[in-house]
Design a protein that fits this description.
Blueprint lengths: L22 E3 L5 E4 L5 H17 L14 E6 L4 H4 L5 H5 L9 H18 L9 E5 L3 H11 L12 E2 L15 H14 L12 H19 L9 E6 L1 H12 L16 E10 L8 E7 L1 H6 L14 H14 L7 E2 L1
Parallel strand pairs: 2-5, 3-6, 4-5, 4-6
Antiparallel strand pairs: 1-2, 3-7, 7-8, 8-9
Length: 337
C-alpha cells in the first residue's frame, strides 16, 4: 500500500499466560482473567507514564522486533434490549445498564459475527492465526463473546478471555430516570456540547475518551509481556461509544469534532499493523502503527477529507497517518520496534 510495509510475516514461539493471574467466573461458567484496569486511579497514572515512555524512547534498531499483533479488531455487541427501545430509552431507564441482555436478533448477530471472525482467523488461503480476546464486563458484550467463541476453537485462542472494566459502556445515568428527564438531558447536551456535557451521575464523551486512552496505554504495556505473537489478532468486544473513542485514540484523532455515528450491532473495526521507517529510508530504524482497512475507513466518517470535502481513500488516509508518524508530531499511536 503506497510503498509501505505490511509486516505480518514474523513468527515467534509464544509463552503461555502464568497460572497465578487472578480470575473471575464468567457468565457462561468459564474462568476469565481479571481485566487490566480495575483500579482506575492507578490506571490513569499508568496511562500517563506509558505515553511519556512511548514518546521518550529512542527509536534505534533493535535486535529483536517487538511482538505486536498483526491486527486489532473492535466488535460491537449484538442488538440488546436497550437498542430495541432506544427511542424511548425504556430499557435503559428500567434495567441497570450492565444487566441489559441481548435480544433474539442480537444473539443471532453474535453467532454470525463469530463466523465472520473465524473466516478472518482461518482464511481460505494463507496460514491460520490465533486471537486474544478482551471484553466489556456488561452482559450484552459477554453474551456476544460467548456466541463468537462458539466459532473459535480453544486452540485458536491466546490464553483466557480478559474481562476489563475500562471497556464498559458510555455511562449516561438513565437508570431510574423518567422519560422527560432523559429527553431533557439529551437536549441540554446538544446545546452545551456533545463532547463536554456530563450526564447526571454519568460521564461526558471526554470522560469516555480519557478511559479509552487509559486502556490503550495499558494495552501498550500488556504487549511487552510477549503473550501475543506477531501473527496473532487482538479482538475487543465492547460498545459503540467506547469503540469510536478507542479508534480515535489509535489514529491520534481528538475527541473534539465528534459526529454521531450509527454503528450496526456486531459491526467490526479492523486495524492492520504497518511498519514505517522513522526517516523514510527502508534501512533505517522503524516504528509500527495501526491503520483501518477499507471497510472500517468507510464507517469512520471523521477521518481526513480532501480539499473538495470528499473522504480520502483508505490508502491515502493510511499514507497521511504514516507521514505524521515519521515526523513524530502528534498523531497515531506509535509502537517503537
Amino acid at each position: 500500500r503506497h510503498g509501505l510495509t505490511s509486516d505480518h510475516t514474523h513468527t515467534h514461539r509464544r509463552r503461555e499466560q502464568p497460572p497465578w493471574r487472578p480470575r473471575v467466573r464468567g457468565c457462561s461458567g468459564r474462568d476469565m482473567v481479571v481485566g487490566l484496569g480495575h483500579v482506575e486511579a492507578i490506571a490513569a497514572f499508568t496511562a500517563v507514564a506509558a505515553v511519556v515512555l512511548a514518546v521518550a524512547v529512542t527509536l534505534g534498531t533493535s535486535k529483536r522486533q517487538r511482538r505486536l499483533p498483526a491486527r486489532i479488531i473492535l466488535v460491537r455487541h449484538g442488538e440488546s434490549k436497550g437498542n430495541a427501545t432506544t427511542a424511548t430509552k425504556e430499557e435503559y431507564r428500567r434495567t441497570q445498564d450492565h444487566l441489559i441482555e441481548l435480544t433474539e436478533l442480537g444473539q443471532q448477530q453474535a453467532l454470525e459475527a463469530g463466523e465472520r471472525l473465524a473466516r478472518i482467523l482461518h482464511p481460505s488461503s494463507g496460514s491460520a492465526t490465533r486471537a486474544k480476546f478482551f471484553v466489556s464486563p456488561y452482559a450484552r458484550c459477554r453474551h456476544t463473546l460467548d456466541a463468537i467463541l462458539s466459532a473459535v476453537p480453544p486452540e485458536a485462542r491466546v490464553g483466557e478471555v480478559t474481562v476489563d472494566n475500562l471497556l464498559r459502556e458510555f455511562d449516561r445515568g438513565y437508570h431510574g430516570q423518567t422519560h422527560d428527564d432523559v429527553m431533557a438531558w439529551n437536549l441540554a447536551r446538544r446545546e452545551y456540547g456533545m463532547c463536554q456535557y456530563r450526564f447526571q451521575n454519568g460521564e461526558s464523551l471526554e470522560d469516555v475518551y480519557a478511559r479509552a486512552s487509559t486502556w490503550v496505554a495499558l494495552f501498550h504495556s500488556f504487549l511487552d509481556l510477549g503473550w501475543v505473537g506477531c501473527d496473532d489478532t487482538v479482538v475487543i468486544v465492547c460498545h459503540a461509544g467506547l469503540m469510536l473513542q478507542v479508534a480515535k485514540r489509535l489514529l491520534g484523532q481528538p475527541v473534539e469534532g465528534f459526529k454521531p455515528t450509527t454503528l450496526p450491532n456486531c459491526a467490526f473495526f479492523v486495524f492492520e499493523r504497518y511498519t514505517v521507517p522513522t526517516d523514510g529510508r527502508a534501512d533505517s530504524s522503524s516504528v509500527a502503527c495501526y491503520a483501518p482497512d477499507p471497510a472500517t475507513h468507510d464507517i469512520l466518517e471523521w477521518l481526513p477529507r480532501k480539499s473538495d470535502g470528499t473522504l480520502t481513500t483508505a490508502g491515502e488516509a493510511t499514507e497521511a497517518a504514516h507521514r505524521i508518524v515519521r515526523s513524530m508530531s502528534p498523531g497515531p499511536l506509535v509502537f517503537p520496534l
